[in-house]
Amino acid sequence: MSVVWFLLLWGFVGYMLYTKWQRMRGFERKRTIAAMKEPRFIFSVGFLFGGFFLTSVAGIFQSGIVYLIGMLCMVIGAVVLAVLNWRKNRSFSYFLLAIVGLVSFVTLFG
């Protein structure tokens, strides 16, 4: 059953990304690729999505180590994102750090 949810979730995300990519113009694609190569994107959004992917893969294979690595990636990505957005939106940063703390607590002691 977890394989079905995995395929539905990541298939939907992949479909949405593909359709958005097809609608972009050439200069928008170049700008998107340039933004995705920046360390700011990699260490925030990249780690969040990578960690989420690893935790969903760990659910399929029942691997505790892969799950912890995924959770660690998500925590790093969320903390970096909160620090980067601190000046723009402090309430979002507080909320994000609270969620990270709660998820980390539940993962470690749950």
UniProtKB/TrEMBL annotation:
Organism domain of life: Bacteria
The keyword Transmembrane helix appears for this protein: yes
Transmembrane spans: 6-21, 41-59, 65-84, 91-109
Keywords: Membrane, Transmembrane, Transmembrane helix
Identification of the protein by name: DUF3325 domain-containing protein
Lineage: Bacteria, Bacillati, Bacillota, Bacilli, Bacillales
